[in-house]
Structure formats: C-alpha cells, structure tokens
What does this fold into?
Amino acid sequence: NAGVTQTPKFQVLKTGQSMTLQCAQDMNHNSMYWYRQDPGMGLRLIYYSASEGTTDKGEVPNGYNVSRLNKREFSLRLESAAPSQTSVYFCASRRGGVSEETQYFGPGTRLLVL
Amino acid sequence: SQKIEQNSEALNIQEGKTATLTCNYTNYSPAYLQWYRQDPGRGPVFLLLIRENEKEKRKERLKVTFDTTLKQSLFHITASQPADSATYLCALNSGYSTLTFGKGTMLLVSP
It folds into this structure.
C-alpha cells in the first residue's frame, strides 16, 4: 500500500495563478483532510471530508476550495494564489468510526507563491 | 475553540535519559488525545492515543499520561536515542472527526 500520496511535491506560483493539489489514499478510508503547516503556527485544518460526498470548512478555509472526487481522492484548489498561501500542505486520511481516530498523513506539498 | 500549548523551546537531552514532553489544553476535555512524530520534510506519523478514561498508555519505550483535572498530557521516551530526535505533536479531538494540533516540541537527543 502506498498510503496517502500527494502531488506535486513542490510548486512555485505567481500571485493570482491557480492550481490544484491532489491527494489520494489506498486504505479505503472514509475521511480525508487538508492541513497547512507554517512556522510557528502548527498544523491548521483547511477543509475536511468526513465521508464521500461531504465536505466541511476547517479553521482556515478562506481562499481554498475542495472536491471529494471519490472515496480515494480529495483535491484542494487555490483559485487565485496569494503570498499568504505560501506553506506546506498536508493531506491526511482516517478510517472513520468509533475507535478509528488515527490520521495518516501524506508527504506534503511545498508551495511558494511569489 | 480548543487551545493547545506545547513547549515551543527545543528539549535537549543526552542519549539514555528519559525525555518528557508536555501538552496542556484549555476549554473542554477531549474524548481522546494523540501524539504524533514529525521528521523534517515529512508528514506527521501517529504514535499513541489515550482516551479520557485512561490514565496511562505504553508502547515500547513510549509512555503517555492523561490528567483531565490538570488538563495535561505528558509524553515520555525512556532510554532515548539520537534517532528519537524529531518534533512531537500533541493533538486533541475537536469534533466528531477532526483534530486540533499543538505547535509541537522539538526533541534533540545527543550521543
């Protein structure tokens, strides 16, 4: 099993450009998450999908959109990138249900917005 | 919303000693608390989970305690090794399916 995979690994954008970060998991997990991690700020939840067909805002959703394409895939879109969105983005998944609280993280996407 | 405090200063210890990391939280008591390890340039990796009705949990050289009265969890690594050097994150459930993470504490184990 590859676990949680993310593409791309690195990306440089200019202000105003758009891009989509891709995430896929092969563990048949129900829930998926997008976080951003900034120095001194820790991991902050952007959006999540508790189950296929649902998405909800997290702590810092402004400037982002998400799509739960199917059970395996959860994408994060930046419509008009801003320098404040320079960060490391992590996707995570969780089986879901009682006693299944562990989250499994991908390797991250490092995004620089100039 | 839940606020989580972890020591922002790096913890430096010698190989073989016990490392103790602290996680304090405010507001409501979570149903469970988790600890993750994060190495530079990588995503966090789950280590241990402890529930509100458990006082202590162990896994090999790792031990976690959970004091809901003090609103505190302690994470211990016994017989620490240089390979234990990493950032350790505390996380609490903040909803049915979401976690709130602390900012993490960096542990440096010197030979």
Summary: The longest strand of chain B covers residues 86-93. The interface with chain A takes residues 1, 8, 32, 34, 41-46, 49, 89, 93, 96-104 of chain B (CB under 8 Å). The CA atoms of residues 7 and 105 of chain B lie 6 Å apart. Chain B is about 0% helix and 55% strand.
